[in-house]
Amino acid sequence: MEKVNLTCIECPMGCRIEVEVENGKAVSITGNSCPRGKMYAENEVVCPMRVVTSTVRSKSGKMVPVKTDKPVKKALIFEVMKTINSLSCNTPIRIGDIICENISDGANLVASGNVD
Ligand code: SF4
Questions:
Q1: How many domains does the chain have?
Q2: DSSP-derived secondary structure letter, 41
Q3: Is residue 116 one of the residues assigned to a domain?
Q4: Residue 57 is part of which domain span?
Q5: What is the CATH number of the domain that holds 35?
Q6: Is the domain of 57 the same as that of 106?
Q7: 110 has which bridge partners?
């Protein structure tokens, strides 16, 4: 049995969570203060996921802040960043506009700010 220590990133409290892992599954989770922390810990030991934030250069040269609209597999973030770096978009752009559909596993890349 392996012990994994995590800091929950689901809210600013940052609870320290200890997970006991057996055969790739969480068999014991302690230290979380709420169910979100338990879910975070379970996912973190099996398939860690992250929302990706970055910027895309628009055709006018302005930088557009972007993020994935849901978490993507941490193991695929390098590929997602490569795609983001190859993108360009038109302005003006508004929060929530889709910059790239299905950039990874059904997650879209959307604008996270307005750019005129
Ligand atoms: S376990 Fe719950 S309270 Fe603690 S950091 Fe995670 S989300 Fe916040």
A1: 2
A2: H
A3: no
A4: 53-111
A5: 2.20.25
A6: yes
A7: 67, 98
- Within this chain, do residues 36 and 74 fall inside the same structural domain, yes or no? no
Question: Is residue 10 lining ligand 1, measured as CB closer than 6 Å?
Answer: yes
Q: Count Cβ atoms within 10 A of the Cβ of residue 110 and give its class: 0-12 exposed, 13-18 middle, 19 or more buried.
A: buried
Q: How far does the centroid of ligand 1 lie from the alpha carbon of residue 14, in Å?
A: 6
Q: Is ligand 1 within 6 A of the CB of residue 81?
A: no
pLDDT per position in the chain (116 positions), as tens? 899 999 999 999 999 999 999 988 899 999 999 999 999 999 999 899 999 999 999 999 999 999 999 999 999 999 999 999 999 999 999 999 999 999 999 999 999 999 99
Those residues with Cβ within 8 angstroms of residue 99's Cβ, 6 or more apart along the chain or in another chain:
56, 64, 66, 87, 89, 93, 108, 109, 110, 111
Q: How many residues does the chain have?
A: 116
Distance, in Å, from the CA atom of 115 to the CA atom of 52, rounded to the nearest integer, reads 19
